[in-house]
Hints:
With 642 residues, the chain is α/β, with parallel strands linked by helices.
Amino acid sequence: MEFLDLPQLLSAAGTVRLPGSKSISNRVLLLAALAEGETEVCDLLASDDTGRMIDALRVLGVGVTHLGGESWSIKGCGGKFPVKQAELFLGNAGTAFRPLTAALALAGGDYVLKGVPRMHERPIGDLVDGLRQLGADVAYLGNDGFPPLHLKPARIQPDGAVSVRGDVSSQFLTGLLMALPITGQTITVNVVGELISRPYIEITLAIMARFGVVVEREAWQRFTVVAGSRYVSPGTIHVEGDASSASYFLALGAIGGGPVRVDGVGRDSIQGDVKFADALAKMGAEIEMGPNWMSARAPKNGLLAVDLDCNAIPDAAMTLATAALFAKGTTTLRNIASWRVKETDRIAAMATELRKLGAVVEEGGDFIRISPSTVKPSAIDTYDDHRMAMCFSLAAFATPLRINDPKCVAKTFPDYFERFAAVTQAAPVIAIDGPSASGKGTVAARVASALGFGYLDSGALYRLTALAAQQAGVDWADEAGVAAVAAALDVEFLENDIQLDGQWVGDAIRHENISAGASRVAALPAVRATLLFRQRAFNKAPGLVGDGRDMASVVFPHARLKVFLTASPEVRAQRRYKQLIEKGLSANLGDLLLELQQRDARDSRRSVAPLRQEADAKLLDTTDLTIEAAVNQVLVWSKEVM
Ligand code: DC
């Protein structure tokens, strides 16, 4: 599985231009396809979901041309798709599946609509019931109430009325409303039950109006499209920035100092999720807004917990769940039952992953309650849900963490993590690599203490692994066995010593046979992979100095400063000899030199993460340098880059 390791963040500030809104993009694409005339769509979101819609429209014979960048041209078909028989694969794109189901059920063709397995678990029965009331011929190909679907030409009832449930997903009502002009009849839709996610219906009505169809609305219960309504291209249409995507950056500003400003949505937005800014303001964040921008800044005294009805901001509310990790007190998010039928069961997923981080979480059918606690480094699963990945990126303000399958953000925001990196400041790393006995451990520890940074002796992790394997009777050549030992290592690095399984380690890992064992186990790729996140978890505020062989090349490739610290083999052997003698251990200079040269060879010739100087690393040869001189040189270099 792919993963992305995030260092702990120190601060956030800057400006982000948002990608186009997913909800608006897919609605505009469909209406442009159904309209008379050609539409130029600007600022369209490039993502998996819009890709599904574009592919589907092309299969249906609609002329779709990429004009370059985020601009597309759609040749409308006036409500009649040229291709009358087709099978469409719509992935996990709910914003493509629901409206296309409605439009194609009424368009008069023979169509099969499918998706990924999760799409086949997401209910669509209420929409199908509504369409059937209009005379549509819809059959379930799998389970009743769920995709995949087989649509055949409808026999539309003249001037009918339809009832549709409003309390599961507003996308059913959106789908129906957008498809109604195809019928040419006057049709009234009655909403049964409380209409959830009302702001999404407002988006639907606003975009339909841009394409010339005005829906008559009585309260939020009755919607009528009158006979003769037809979609006409507005010529050019601009897609607003995605307000749900804005939520992550506003939250970054609210947690990480700020100000973080998002361009593309603001006070004049038609998207309900801009109300997220109000929720964040309730948590204490300082919000500013213009017609098409918003910004957030952290409150002086920290964020406060809230108890909120989130019906109006179902997607952006997820962002509040991870922001709650930084609030004083217990946060409760209510009226979020729709989370259960999204890309994944978002209430369950959110609860599971927040608990991994150490939060105390209570969940119910339609609420989640979060009490922050000490946060610990964890690997977060994302459930093929873009919003899980983006929400949990915020937790990096509390701890280094791993995001599994980060590319799932492509559903709505393919370059999310690049933009995230551009407005956040990570805890810096100074990477010091070099051969054994070069003095890098001593230099690294002193630099760390001079800067007030943490210190990672990565060699100790390989030594501990070798020791623990030996204690467990696992052969150093048994890759899977040693990797399992490495995964289960129960170590704690304390001020002057290390504890392994609750026992002080002392010099036990410094003996020559453990040095040889460490070099052996360090050559095993599975062991290195297992120890990777454990090392990155040291990348905390205010900063880290790490020493080893692959700090600069593999573990911390983005290190602020990279140093390759070395000395001649003879000098290194002499230093080791002195160390051992001082500790009262017996040693032979000739043997030490030989062993050191063998270890150098093994460490630099191995296939994974061999010891070598990175192109962007500074060389520090300590053959003729005192420790003080070496430490000072690293401190001088670090001043230049911090
Ligand atoms: O730095 P050291 O001598 O304590 O390292 C012990 C062994 O672990 C050494 O043979 C190389 C290996 N090692 C490694 O492969 N990668 C690191 N980052 C650190 C150490």
